[in-house]
Automatic annotation (TrEMBL):
The active site is at T44, T124. InterPro entries: AsnASE_II, Asp/glu_Ase-like_sf, Asparaginase/glutaminase-like, Asparaginase/glutaminase_AS1, Asparaginase/glutaminase_AS2, Asparaginase_C, L-asparaginase_C, L-asparaginase_N. Belongs to the asparaginase 1 family. One of its GO terms (molecular function) is asparaginase activity. This is L-asparaginase. Transmembrane segments: none annotated. Substrate binds at S91, T124, D125. PANTHER family: 60 KDA LYSOPHOSPHOLIPASE, L-ASPARAGINASE. Residues 247-357 form the Asparaginase/glutaminase C-terminal domain. It comes from Paraburkholderia ribeironis. Gene3D superfamilies: 3.40.50.40, L-asparaginase, N-terminal domain (3.40.50.1170). Residues 35-227 form the L-asparaginase N-terminal domain. It holds the Pfam family Asparaginase_C. It comes from the Bacteria.
Length: 360
């Protein structure tokens, strides 16, 4: 049972109706609405607390997909919804097996003529990683849109219902085709490659540093202000599979030792991403350990812990001499996703792997 305050939130959403602008571009009143699959995985958007004023002490993933959809009756004016409950997890506990299940299910759905697009509801903690993984492994130009919430479904002013409506609106829109995987959050549309979580609490928690959002969605209107440039989806060599190479992340900081790197190498790691300082610079002790790891065939990628900008090849370490790879503008977490996929696809050696990072 949700708290009394939560019922007010849901009731308020039930009274909303969409304006005529809510129909996807090119659709009139007599058109057949697109069929959008909504795949729920849990997260804060499906969270509930005992008190409607509590936005941090809640249990994630306890609200089912049918309840999420019932809170947004305006969805019926935008698309025909095909709901599925894929998982009910807090996204901090996202695992590779669930990534595999999710990607394979999306590919199966999009291969059907009956499905025009997919929306995934997800927790915010690892949304950027899941979105980028799907961006690289979905084999369709049909829209795939992830969304989430910073406040649980039981909260006053819950942001999930509007984010869900906007995500379905984006997935149903003709301009979303061929853009790769998108994230619709707080009225903005982001590319999966660019978007990152930047706040622990704000409803405007997702941004695309340096580059900015692709566009926006509001009151049923969708506008893209730029397109996606780098290769994705159908233009990648990556295929989702059950086997994931072991890739870990280490951080460089004042006084760091080499012990973590040595332990990972001893444990059989195939790749290491380092969240370096500044332009991917690495403390001398850790850099030597990473150089030793690279000499043993471990792929080493230099990223940055800064949060924006890009890591220049040979800009803060002798990459050519040490066999390191530059992550470019990818943060450490997305770098790990790309490195795992590249290694699984048979990528070996710093030259070949650098080409992968320069491409995607």
């Amino acid at each position: 049972m949700w708290p009394r305050g939560a019922s007010l939130t849901i009731a308020a959403m039930n009274t909303q109706t969409s304006s005529s602008s809510a129909l996807p571009s090119g659709q009139g009143s007599t058109s057949v609405l697109p069929r959008i699959a909504v795949l729920a995985t849990g997260g804060t958007i499906a969270g509930a607390a005992a008190d409607a004023t509590n936005t941090s002490g809640y249990q994630a993933g306890v609200v089912g997909v049918d309840q999420l959809l019932d809170a947004v009756p305006a969805l019926s004016t935008v698309a025909r919804i095909a709901p599925e409950q894929i998982a009910s997890v807090d996204s901090k506990d996202m695992a590779m097996a669930l990534w595999t299940t999710l990607a394979q299910r999306i590919n199966t759905l999009l291969a059907s003529d009956d499905i025009d697009g997919v929306v995934v509801t997800h927790g915010t903690d690892t949304l950027e990683e899941t979105a980028y993984l799907l961006h690289l492994t979905i084999k369709s130009d049909k829209p795939v849109v992830l969304t989430a919430a910073m406040r649980p479904a039981s909260a006053l002013s819950a942001d999930g219902p509007l984010n869900l409506l906007n995500a379905v609106t984006v997935a149903a829109h003709s301009r979303s085709h061929g853009q790769g995987v998108l994230v619709a959050f707080n009225n903005r549309i982001h590319s999966a490659r660019d978007v990152v979580k930047t706040s622990t609490y704000a409803v405007d928690a997702f941004q695309s540093p340096e580059i900015g959002a692709l566009g926006w969605v509001q009151d049923g209107r969708v506008e893209f202000q730029r397109g996606v440039v780098r290769a994705h989806t159908l233009a990648t060599e990556f295929v989702i599979g059950p086997n994931w190479p072991l890739v870990e992340i280490v951080v460089s900081y004042a006084g760091v030792s080499r012990s973590t790197v040595d332990a990972l190498v001893a444990g059989g790691v195939r790749g290491i991403v380092v969240a370096g300082t500044g332009n991917g610079s690495i403390h001398a002790s850790m850099q030597q350990a990473l150089a030793d790891a690279a000499s043993q065939g471990v792929a080493v990628v230099r990223s940055s812990r800064v949060g924006s900008g890009h890591v220049m090849r040979n800009g803060a370490a002798p990459d050519d001499a040490l066999g390191f790879i530059s992550a470019g503008s990818l943060n450490p977490y997305k770098s790990r996703v790309l490195l795992m996929l590249a290694l699984a696809a048979g990528g070996t050696g710093p030259v070949a792997l650098q080409k992968v990072f320069d491409t995607y």
